[in-house]
Amino acid sequence: MKTVLINPLHRTLLILVVVTGAAFWIRSDGLTGVTGGIATLAIVWLKGRLIVLDFMELRHAPALWRWLLQGWLMLTTALILLFYYIGRSGVTF
């Protein structure tokens, strides 16, 4: 097992599997509402960041590309939270 974890992609894949299990456990345990949603979004953001940095091989790419894709992850996460808040508060346009 020690030789498998030398490769960074194998470590990332192991982290992704564990974090996916954690997300499944959070939702199956009955954690719903805002707390469950934020926890799930945090896990999804972490998984997206790991995929961008390791599987898309942007960890050693120019900073512009890393920041663009990580900013896109933050923007989509923030928009999901904003739309959730708007839907719950009953704000109309």
Q: Can you describe this structure?
A:
- It contains three helices and no strands.
- With 93 residues, the chain is mainly α.
- The longest helix is centred in the last third of the chain and has 27 residues, at 63-89.
- The model has no long low-confidence stretch (mean pLDDT 85).
Structural descriptors:
93 residues, mainly alpha, 3 helices
Question: Could you give the count of β-strands?
Answer: 0
Range of strand content: under 5%
End-to-end Cα distance, whole Å, is 56 Å
What class do helices, strands and sheet pairing give? mainly alpha
Outline type: flat
Give the helix/strand layout.
Blueprint: H1 8-28, H2 33-55, H3 63-89
Give a brief rundown of this model.
The protein is built from three helices and no strands.
